[in-house]
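Summary for the steering committee. One of the milestones for this cycle was to obtain a three-dimensional model of the protein with ribulose-5-phosphate bound, which we needed before selecting residues for the alanine scan. The sequence and ligand used are listed below.
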Amino acid sequence: MSGPDLRRAAAARALDLVAPGMRLGLGTGSTAAAFVALLGERVRDGLDILGVPTSEATRAQAEGLGIRLATLDEQPELDLTIDGADEVDDRLRLIKGGGAALLREKIVACASHRMVVIADAAKRVDRLGAFPLPIEVNPFGLAATHRAVERTIVEAGCSGSVRLRVRPDGTPLVTDGGHHILDAHLGAIPDPEVLGAALWAVPGVVEHGLFLGIADAAILAAVQDGQAAITVLGSLA
Ligand code: 5RP
């Protein structure tokens, strides 16, 4: 049983939550892609849903599978968003943005009545912060914003380095929204609410990857006796 098998198992459980006529937020990343692939099979078999993708990558995948899509402007209220996460704690607080889609992911999740996370159980943590926290920033004044983010992190009780995310060719990564990503390598985040609020106050910060009070449930898949075993945090009802 491999990582892709676990991602597919979590995605398959999430598919049970989908009902005909739903307006669905479609997440980004390999686990969300597993969900979109399974959703595409159901659509091919006649399921009628409307999807709102959280990235151009997800849009391309969903379009290729024949999933009917809308923008969030056309459908500003969604029933359910299914998305992956980089870390999830037992209070359903998340770090997201490893795939650089955190801004659209947060907007779509917050426009949804429910957000359900799907992930390999290895993403479950006692304390957030081992995964570098992605912070989406405006390109204007990048160096000044970078310094301000470093100062803010220390003031919020954290320590560690902040690095501009680059593409394989060494140029700064550009998000779907035309922004850059600063990754804060913190090791641990003692108080995510304090850090999240402090980062929002930095001019130039567009959004951060702490999803606090947004997820309603997490479907986590682990290997048990050679099979995928599902654990649910929160309620799927
Ligand atoms: C993209 C995300 C992803 O959901 C997160 O990085 C998890 O990805 P994966 O399912 O590939 O592990 O936040 O911005």
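Key point for the committee: The chain has a mean pLDDT of 97.
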